[in-house]
Here is the input.
Amino acid sequence: MLILFIISVVLLLIAIFLLRKINLRRKDLVQAINGVVCSVDPTGIVREVINPEVKGAVVNPKTLQGIDINSLIPTGKERGRLRKDMKAVADGMAEEAGAVYELLGEDRTTQRSWINVTPCSGGLVFLTIQHATSARSQQDPQTYVEEVISHIHTPTYLKEPTAVAGWTYWNEPLCKLLNVNQSDIETLYSNIFSEKSQKALDDDVRRLLEGGSPSVVNITAFRRGDNAKLVLQIRQQISQFGDTQIVVGTVTNVTEQTKHAYQMKLVAEQLAILKDGRRLRLWKYEPQKDVVTVVYDNYFGLNVEYKTYHRADIENMACKEDKPRVDNDIDEICKGYTNTINVAFTLAGDSPTLNAYEISGRVMKRDAMGVPTLILGTCIDVSHMKELENDLKEAKRSANAQNAENQKLLNNIAYVIANPLDSIIGYSQLLEQEDDATQRKIYTEALRNDSKNVLEKVNVMVQMANIKSGKATLKRQPIDLNGFLTENAGVVKEAVGSKDIEVELKLPQKGITLMMDTRYLQKVMTNLTDNAVKFTEKGKITIGYERTTGKEVRIFVIDTGKGIPKERQKRLFTEFERSDAHRSTSTNNSLSLALCKAIVERFGGKIGVKGEEGKGSEFWFTLPIGY
Here is the structure.
């Protein structure tokens, strides 16, 4: 009970304090010179007039009770500004707000008035409405207008009309635009505005002082900090405050609009140039006479001048694919179903170059039944535009294909390194917990092997992606195929080691020289022979080649290993397909064969495998001799 009593006393004291503060606020407001003080809700409805007996006010205080204060402000922009200020003060976002408004008086004429907004209780605000000439009467004009523009959201500045670097005041939006503080303006003025821009502004002020009308001046400015170049539109005017003249300037940032306008100008110039080279031709068509008259020569590639055609002649100029569409569009305008025609088509014929045209026209005359009797139009050669369009489509297709290939590469990398990475993490955890030096050495070696395995897989996939995309650099050089395969067989004999495997060479007496990149040919042979050694326990590995046609050579690697089931041979050269799932737990074999396929196809050849399960396999690939 004692705690509740103490809380009640504290709340009572707070309430007394707030009421006292509100009463003091009321007292201060009521003492305003020639001003009406009223409490309103944030929407503008007057709840109470505090000093209904005030004399000489802008509005009659006795008529304000219950009205919407916004109804006294004729312009929507000023009504919006007042509502925004009232909401900001009511929500506690601002302690005070004020601005000059054009207010409707008792005689329904507008008067310049100062409306000040201050906090009240219960979600209300106080409005003090005064004559603009009496409001802030103790302030000099400079201070007065500074307070006025401080509430304007548009970048705005004030300055003396005869001083270039004299007194100047910028409101917060302008300071923010140019990244300066009010105290820095005089010292940074020449850094922000070039001499040319300063002169343009000063010349505009002199023109205004001589009685000229306000106009827009375009200048450049440099924002402090990043020194970014801005294009500003400035509208200056001279305002009279008693005996004092002040320049008021509003600033609009048009940097982006200027860039856009410049780009549009360039496009327009390019289109104009393109139009000059597109062979614009004029024509007229009289449907009832079925006569098309073409003006100027070289129309549709024909040397004609004021030559006449029939409608069927024009329709037959279109290629087979476009003819139905051209027929339909011409038929619709001739029957009066539409008032215009715009149709593009490609010329019929076997020309190796693209000949495309665009016909545009409009009905100019109709008979009493509304049927067109005269159609006028133009024909433009759009061959170049169609070529550009086709090139763009091809570029987009290539980009999409490249994106798909890149995504596939990322997916493949994620797939093939998942298991080795899991293994690396596992060995790392074991290594961290193991104290025995011998066991730690085993784990370290396992980590090294798995890391090497990951690196090899990633390298293979990157090589494959580069080959498929055409990014791989090819170095053509003559290769003596007999000598090359003989050296390769020697390496295979060393790799066989203690296995009971015979390495045999089958080479023609007359050798062949290939123009080939040795690195990639060696990569294919190494992958195929490594697989043969890996999956053959005993028997024979045969390496050789034969000339299949006058322009092609077939190279083969035959082993007597376990062989590959026929149903799996077609999928063998795709990524992640192993030749024998029971013989390998990794994807290295599938990646190596997929890389072989990519290399061989890049050099214009084919690759394949044949054999039976339990009877060995023959891997082969072909290459053009003249490559």
